[in-house]
Amino acid sequence: MSESLVWRESYALGVELLDAQHREMVRLINLVLDPAAGDEAGARLDALIAQLRRHFETEEVFLRAIDYPLTEEHAREHTLQLAEFVDLRRSIGRGGGAIGAESRTEIRQWFFNHVVAEDRRFGAYYRRVVCGAAE
Ligand SMILES: [Fe+2]
Ligand SMILES: [Fe+2]
């Protein structure tokens, strides 16, 4: 099985800014997952964490703006996830060091569980309630 994530248009929420950020996230995750990252792993993870911070903030502002009923739960998930990425960063040390196979699997799973599954729920809410689209 290939380690890399592949962006699919079916993952798109129909919210241009958030979709662009999710696409960029796939690119940054793939750099982190790359087994050849070597000493670069730490810097790549730093870049991903910085992007996640910006993305989560943007997404939470959006969720509040559309009055999404599960905003607080969703934001809590973001906070927990960010803490896990920060822990992982700490665990690989200053210079970098490799990211273990287990952590790579967890990162991929997180992408599918959160970005593809959980984020889609507010995407559906947005299209239905805010845009009035029939699903
Ligand atoms: Fe997201
Ligand atoms: Fe999210």
Give a verbal description of the structure:
It is built from four helices and no strands. Helix 1 packs antiparallel against helix 2 (41-65), helix 1 packs antiparallel against helix 4 (101-130) and helix 2 runs antiparallel to helix 3 (71-91). The chain has helices at residues 16-33, 41-65, 71-91, 101-130. It has one domain: Up-down Bundle (Four Helix Bundle (Hemerythrin (Met), subunit A)). The longest helix is centred in the last third of the chain and has 30 residues, at 101-130. It binds fe (ii) ion (2 copies). One fe (ii) ion binds at residues 22, 55, 59, 115, 119. Residues 59, 74, 78, 114, 118-119 line the site of one fe (ii) ion (FE2).
What is the CATH homologous superfamily assignment? Answer: Hemerythrin-like
Tell me about the biggest sheet? none
Q: Mean pLDDT, rounded to whole units?
A: 92
CATH top level is Mainly Alpha
Radius of gyration: 16 Å
CATH topology: Four Helix Bundle (Hemerythrin (Met), subunit A)
Look at the helices and sheets and give the structural class: mainly alpha
Q: Give the count of structural domains.
A: 1
- Identify the bound ligands: fe (ii) ion
Treating each run of at least 4 consecutive H or I residues as one helix, how many helices? 4
Residue share in helix: 55-70%
How many angstroms does the end-to-end distance come to?
33 Å
Low-confidence region ranges: none
Question: Strand content of the residues, in percent?
Answer: under 5%
